[in-house]
Amino acid sequence: MIQHLPILQVIIPLLAAPICFILKEARLVRWFVLIANVMAFVVSIMLLQQVNLNGTLVYSLGGWDAPVGIEYRIDKLNAYLLILVTSISTITLMAAGKSLTKEISESKITYFYIAYMLCLTGLLGIVTTGDAFNVFVFLEISSLASYTMIAMGNDRRSLWASYQYLIMGTIGATFILIGIGLMYMMTGTLNMYDLAERLPEVEHTKTVFTAFAFFLVGVCLKLALFPLHLWLPNAYAYAPSIATVFLAATATKVAIYVLLRFIFSVYGFEFSFSHLPLTEILVSLGLLGIIAASIVAIYQTNVKRLFAYSSVSQIGYMILGIGIGTKTGLTATMLHLFNHALMKSAIFLALAGVVYRVGSVNIKAFAGLGRQMPWTMAAIVIGGLSLIGVPLTVGFVSKWYLVLALLESNWWPIAVLVLIGSLLAIAYIWRIVEVAYFKPALQNNQSYKEAPLAILIPAWIFVLANIYFGIDTSFTAGVSEATAELLFGVAE
Amino acid sequence: MNFLEQYNYWIVILLMMSGFYIVIAHGNLVKKLMGLTIFQTSVFILYISVSKVIGGTAPILNDQYTVYSNPLPHVLILTAIVVGVATTALGLALAVRIKEAYGTVEEDVIQEKDLQQEGSAE
Amino acid sequence: MDANLARSNQKKIRSRAIEILINVILLAFLAITALSLAFTKDLFASVMLTGIYSLLSAAFFVLMDAVDVAFTEAAVGAGISTILMVTTLTMTGRYENRKLHHPLIALCVVAVTGVMLIIGTMDMPAFGSDVAPAQVHVAPYYIMQSGEDIDIPNIVTSVLASYRGFDTFGEVVVVFTAVVGVLALLEFSRKESDITEKPAPMFQHKILRIVSKILIPPIMLFALYVQFHGEYGPGGGFQAGVIFASAIILYAMLFGVEQTRKAVSMPVVKVFAALGVLIYGSVGIVSMLNGGNYLDYNALFENDITGQHVGIIIIELGVGITVATAMILIFLTFARRIGKSNSNSGTKEGTA
């Protein structure tokens, strides 16, 4: 069975979804989904072991070798992302049982779980595949599933948010389709590694440039790069809390993976950074995103929306790291990708706890919560400190690498701007701290109890991970450096 | 001849862009989805144009023919058509629910109502 | 020069000229349809234009030798999507607001995108060229080898079901995802579901009723033909599924949704929607257990060709089942919503 690991990674959650559809009963489905998730997680760990032992794994689907058939290809970068996605999805799911009963009508809970599994399937499929068109197919699976999950929020604005995401997401996907079509037109292949071999022959044609541009714009729509982020704040704010945790922690990260794969592995560093002004574009958009989204975040009254804008600005950091175009910069991106997933999982899960008890995430409702729900608020505060980049949290580690990369390239003015971005983060985190700890509880507030353990424990797993990986950086930094080297190695 | 060679592609671009324009500029949610359909269908036309070999025939093996058009884009577009209709169905379902919840499917009215709601929540 | 050869050359040139002429006219029609769609305010007219656009593009696909694609586009674009859109319009209203949303900005975005694409066409290989990169790499393998590897005439089916079978699996999952999404959004929970149904609007048209009663069985039969003929000609599970569903949809339009729900049990249809995906997936599992890779049909039987044939028939069946049930479920869910949506349109709050 060992040689089948790559495909098992995807078909376990995939086949779990239709089985859940037949099972129907929500409690049964919940356990089934959890088991499938744990299995997927175990498979991803085994995959990383295999990759460490044997190097890149190649698996030909249908027994047809690429480029005739579709192949799965797993190297360190994919394996790392697979672990990230499956672990976060599993831990988030532990909190789902409690949180969903409060936010979704009972008859729809099964559908939510199925959509969750399908979304997971889509994301895993994107990460494992080595075929450009297969990326599109699985991207659409994950997108349709996430539109469904978002629309199930209990505010009517969730419907509008989902519709907006559907339109922008489909435009993005169609751009990606155009990009893939043009690449195919110029090379005759869809396999990523075959493309990498064949693109250099035609790299000076305008068609290949156009293909690259459309693909990039499409992916950037999906990963909500400023100013293509318009769908994200409402989608995160009004989706059911569990969907927000899952999407915030994984979906944008997978989009960044696709970006990295195509910039470095398919087109190659040479093409992306020498023929195109990619550095200028990514650095300026990244910086704009960091500053503008942070400022907008300060003025939000809906706390989920506040952190959604914060996500847009954090994506800016990752894009900035890619834009620097050095190994250290890429290491910073990889680190931040992992770390940001931890931060946002902790924060949004804690917010799920707030929704469970208080029923609102308006900033006014937070008054006095610091005393009433100490553990929940502590999780948000520690997550927030991590977002700011305070030492001993993971946020510090990735910002440290980012500033280091900037200084290495002698771009100190940009480093200063990055630090200003952190100051802005202090401003929006402080607003919550101020209300929660220094304002008396509203008069009509009955005293709220601590969030249920089923939500609190998963949230604190992420909080502790934030601290643990902030102190012991050997695993994350090691893996990030290895993947950065790998991506540059492919480019050489 | 050069004009005719790229004529297909240019018209296809015009088609794609009119679909794209409808998606962005129109405010009616159902109309936007129609625009999206046109946009996607036009991309399909682009793919299928790539597959054509002049003098070729449909890719169904037959001893009479030796030149066939490229079957691969056909397969890709079959998949893409299905993806397209799936997206349309979901988008229409959302439009129906939005109509029920907001009483309208016009973008500007919805946004106005959202602003009002946020204002009253303050 | 040999007179015979000259005559056949002349014939070739003439047929080529006609092909170009049809090509130019079809594209011009497509352009007119797309542009008039942008200016029409009547949404019913817009739906019809969208349908016409799909039908025209299906005709264009035939011209481009893509018969399978044409078949699907006609069934889906002109068929299913049109029906779904019309159903939606009965709930959301017929006319759109005249106000455009930042038309100038939109025009700029579109212009920039268009110019980018036109720049992209500059270095494209000439249209229809047989030495373009797309025609000399990978594709020749399918054309030369599929006869030997899989031994069915329709190369598109070979690629779809075997060489790139996993993409098709993904496609089935996309359809399944759409079903889950539509049900999650529009299905009534138990207590909401007791609506009394008005008689179907078409029921009083006797001619329509009789004609469709005559038509429904042949449509279903045709669906089965398309299902099992996909290896030899254009067709396959997807097209068959859509055609089968259209027979049920026709029935529902004439005799009403509730009547249809009595004829076709919803829980069973739901189970089948999931079952199609599972059938497809389990073919892969079986080949894995037999020592092959996932979806490797060669591993199904001793004889590779038999394995390929059986594998393709089974997965096409899975596709057909999921697509047919999915389309039925989606349509019926939409149609049932009409009653509630219209009674609710006065009140503004309606979210669950």
TrEMBL record, chain A:
InterPro entries: CPA3_Na-H_Antiporter_D, ND/Mrp_TM. Residues 131-424 form the NADH:quinone oxidoreductase/Mrp antiporter transmembrane domain. It comes from the Bacteria. It is found in: Cell membrane; Membrane. Pfam families: Proton_antipo_M (PF00361). The chain crosses the membrane at residues 6-24, 31-51, 77-97, 109-127, 133-153, 165-187, 207-232, 244-269, 281-299, 306-325, 337-356, 377-398, 410-430, 451-471. Keywords: Cell membrane, Membrane, Transmembrane, Transmembrane helix. It is a multi-pass membrane protein. Its main location: membrane. PANTHER family: NA(+)_H(+) ANTIPORTER SUBUNIT D1, NADH DEHYDROGENASE. Belongs to the CPA3 antiporters (TC 2.A.63) subunit D family. This is Monovalent cation/H+ antiporter subunit D family protein.
TrEMBL record, chain B:
It is found in: Cell membrane. It holds the Pfam family Oxidored_q2. It is a multi-pass membrane protein. Its main location: membrane. Keywords: Cell membrane, Membrane, Transmembrane, Transmembrane helix. It comes from the Bacteria. The keyword Iron does not apply. The keyword Membrane applies. The chain crosses the membrane at residues 6-24, 36-55, 75-96. Belongs to the CPA3 antiporters (TC 2.A.63) subunit C family. NCBIfam families: PRK07375.1-6, PRK07375.2-3. This is Cation:proton antiporter subunit C. It comes from Kangiella taiwanensis.
